[in-house]
């Protein structure tokens, strides 16, 4: 079976007046359809750079990226990118914010409008369509940002620390909600996070990067014995601490 995403020999350097800084070196891995991958590593190791390359914002110096077996520049696969901040516009209602991507891509037909309202209702924002972002909690704003992304029907979701701006209690709750939403819709997802507990709680596999330039130190499967656990249930599972310690050891070696 062809992998959903295949990365081979990827390297990237930033260039400035002061010289060249290598961010990534010889990165290779695959992601299967419907798989949830987490990428962890020290600050500055190239995690966000990797997502920028996958989204087409940056072009690698070396290596190849295949999506469904097709090179990235030629692939027609729709990629959704959810950033650290929700980037909701205060002068637009929550429904209007969620529809922004559809408007930009000229997809505001009846089917997409109905799908958008279904998403709003399904994920607890149906009664807040006319609210402004400032009237919502941080968790609700992140749900609105996810709905904006899902409305475009992406095949792959890139998540760049989407919970980092939330307080700890809200972060746990929203992480649980969003992970359940993504898995329920059978999306392929790649999460960047500094939080090892978060990675273990959501991922099927964890990719561990070294200090800059980022290289793969290890790829760790997270096969909890009990299937279908939510992130909160994983955190309370006896196997959780073992996986956490394995990731920590690889990072420290």
Automatic annotation (TrEMBL):
Which SMART domains does the protein's record reference?
Answer: AAA
Instruction: Enumerate the InterPro entries for this protein.
Output: AAA+_ATPase, ABC_transporter-like_ATP-bd, ABC_transporter-like_CS, ABC_transporter_ATP-bind, P-loop_NTPase
Keyword annotations of the record = ATP-binding, Nucleotide-binding, Transport
- Gene3D superfamilies given for it? P-loop containing nucleotide triphosphate hydrolases
Q: Which domain of life is it from?
A: Bacteria
Q: Which CDD domains match?
A: ABC_NrtD_SsuB_transporters (cd03293)
One MF annotation (Gene Ontology) recorded for this entry = ATP binding
Annotated ABC transporter domain ranges read 5-236
Protein name as it appears in the record? ABC transporter domain-containing protein
Q: Which organism is it from?
A: Clostridium symbiosum (strain WAL-14163)
